[in-house]
TrEMBL record:
Signal sequence extent: none
Residue intervals of the RCK N-terminal domain: 1-116
Membrane-spanning segments: none
InterPro entries: NAD(P)-bd_dom_sf (IPR036291), RCK_C_sf (IPR036721), RCK_N (IPR003148), Trk_Ktr_HKT_K-transport (IPR050721)
Pfam families according to UniProt: TrkA_N
Origin: domain of life: Bacteria
Protein's name according to its UniProt entry: Trk system potassium uptake protein TrkA
GO BP: any one term: potassium ion transport
PROSITE patterns xrefs: RCK_N
């Protein structure tokens, strides 16, 4: 997969390097040449340009990117302008970093696909989320075992957990399922809210658009999701 990371500070650079290690093509962008130079040997491509300059940004292969991440953390204005440009261009998936609670509210109003909180989430965790298309979030318990939120695959819609046999066939446990509902932020703008359905039972049926919370060895989780 191809990712464009805009903003090569600590979080952006770490994320770009993690995604490159996993095997993805990563284009890292920053207007600071020093930051670009620091990652030129560790990511696929590094480019120095101003991400708030529409003409400059259009030189990037944005239409080919599976996702664009705005990781600018020092300049809220540049973050929002870069995000607005990506919305205008119409990238496939737009993920932007929130610097303050108000900034997050503005990003929600702009309807970005996902919002990053580097103070709470590590670059490694985000790299794992982006590595497999249907992963919504992940939390590493040890070096091998994780809890992963993933959208229900098409092949399992309408089936119960006992019919699927998660433990027998995949060596995994489904802890719970969640549905995505519409809520409101402080500006009254619609936002997506996860509604947890309680502890999963063998009779729990997986529905279209729901999220499963899986527990198990990361290799087993990856094998199941890539099937």
């Amino acid at each position: 997969m191809k990712y464009v990371i805009i903003g090569l500070g600590n979080f952006g650079a770490s994320l770009a390097e993690e995604l490159t290690k996993i095997g993805h093509e990563v284009i890292g962008v920053d207007r600071n040449m020093g930051k670009v130079e620091m990652v030129k040997e560790t990511i696929t491509h590094s480019i120095c340009l101003d991400s708030t300059d529409e003409h400059a940004v259009k030189q990037l292969p944005l239409k080919d990117a599976d996702a664009v991440m705005i990781c600018i953390g020092e300049d809220e204005g540049a973050n929002l302008m870069s995000t607005a440009l990506m919305k205008k261009i119409g990238v496939k998936k737009l993920i932007s970093r929130a610097i303050t609670p108000l900034h997050q509210t503005v990003l929600e109003a702009m309807q970005v696909d996902e919002i990053v909180h580097p103070e709470q989430e590590t670059a490694t965790r985000w790299a794992k989320r982006l590595n497999i298309d249907c992963v919504v979030d992940s939390f590493e318990l040890t070096g091998e075992y994780s809890i992963v939120e993933a959208t229900v695959p098409e092949r399992l819609i309408g089936k119960s957990l006992i019919d699927i046999g998660f433990h027998q066939h995949y060596n995994l446990i489904v802890l719970t399922t969640m549905s995505i509902e519409e809520g409101k932020n402080m500006l009254g703008v619609n936002k997506k809210v996860n509604k947890i359905k309680g502890i999963a039972s063998p009779k729990t049926v997986l529905n279209k658009g729901e999220i499963m919370v899986l527990y198990g060895h990361m290799k087993d989780i990856e094998r199941f999701l890539e099937e």
